[in-house]
C-alpha cells in the first residue's frame, strides 16, 4: 500500500468517526445542559484525564476560564491534571490512583460537575475520581471510549462513541469539547 493510499484510508476512518459523533448529538446536548446549569447556580467544572486525555481536559478548562470564540465572563473550571506538584505529592503519599480523588475531596462540592476523559474508561485514578465526585454530591460526565467501560457506570452522562481506535476516540473528544465550548459561549455570551 502506498503512503497516499494509507493516508486516504486514515481519512476514511475519520469519516466513520464523524458518523459515530452524529449518533451522540443528544448526549452532547445533555453535557451542555448539565454544565450550563452548574455554572448558572455558582458551581464549577473539574476536569481530568491521563496523557492525551489530560491535555484535552486542560484545554476544556482553560477555554472556559478564558474564552473559546467570543468574549464572555469567565466560567469556573479547573483541570485536576494541571498541577504537577499536587499530582506528585498525592501520588507519592497516597498512590497514583488517588491523584484526582484527593483533589476532588479538597475542592469538589455539591453543585459542581466532574468531567473525566479516557479512551479506555478503565484507569483506576479516574474510577476513584468518579467515586469521590459521587461522594461529594457532584454530577459526573465521561468522555470515554466504546460503551461498557467501568467509568461509564459511574457517569451521569457518558459520551461513549462506538469506535475502537483510541486516536479517533480522542479526536471525537476534542470535537465534542469544541461543540460544548461553542454552545456555552452562546449561552453565556
The assigned structural class equals alpha/beta
Annotated CATH homologous superfamily: Glucose-6-phosphate isomerase like protein, domain 1
Oligomer: single chain
Question: Strand-residue fraction?
Answer: 5-15%
The fold-level CATH name is: Rossmann fold
Q: Mind telling me the C-alpha Rg?
A: 17 Å
The number of helices is 7
Give me some keywords for this one.
single chain; 189 residues; alpha/beta; Rossmann fold; five-stranded parallel beta sheet; 5 strands; 11% strand; globular
Give an overview in words:
With 189 residues, this protein is an alpha/beta fold. It has one domain: Rossmann fold (3-Layer(aba) Sandwich). The chain is built from seven helices and five strands; from the N terminus they run ααβαβααβαββα. Strand 1, helix 3 and strand 2 form a beta-alpha-beta unit. Helix 1 (3-22) crosses helix 7 and helix 5 (101-107) runs parallel beside helix 6 (124-135). It is globular, with a radius of gyration of 17 Å. The chain starts with a helix and ends with a helix. The model has no long low-confidence stretch (mean pLDDT 96).
Amino acid at each position: 500500500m502506498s503512503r497516499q493510499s494509507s493516508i486516504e484510508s486514515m481519512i476514511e476512518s475519520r469519516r466513520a468517526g464523524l458518523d459515530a459523533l452524529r449518533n451522540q448529538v443528544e448526549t452532547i446536548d445533555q453535557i451542555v445542559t448539565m454544565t450550563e446549569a452548574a455554572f448558572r447556580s455558582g458551581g464549577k467544572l473539574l476536569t481530568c484525564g491521563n496523557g492525551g486525555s489530560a491535555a484535552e481536559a486542560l484545554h476544556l478548562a482553560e477555554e472556559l476560564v478564558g474564552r473559546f470564540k467570543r468574549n464572555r465572563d469567565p466560567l469556573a473550571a479547573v483541570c485536576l491534571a494541571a498541577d504537577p506538584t499536587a499530582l506528585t505529592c498525592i501520588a507519592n503519599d497516597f498512590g497514583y490512583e488517588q491523584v484526582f480523588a484527593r483533589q476532588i475531596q479538597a475542592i469538589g462540592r455539591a453543585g459542581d460537575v466532574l468531567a473525566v476523559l479516557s479512551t479506555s474508561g478503565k484507569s483506576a485514578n479516574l474510577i476513584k475520581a468518579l467515586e469521590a465526585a459521587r461522594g461529594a454530591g457532584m454530577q459526573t460526565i465521561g468522555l470515554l471510549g466504546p460503551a461498557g467501560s467501568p467509568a461509564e457506570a459511574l457517569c451521569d452522562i457518558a459520551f461513549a462513541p462506538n469506535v475502537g481506535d483510541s486516536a479517533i476516540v480522542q479526536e471525537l473528544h476534542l470535537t465534542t469539547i469544541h461543540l460544548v465550548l461553542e454552545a456555552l459561549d452562546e449561552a453565556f455570551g
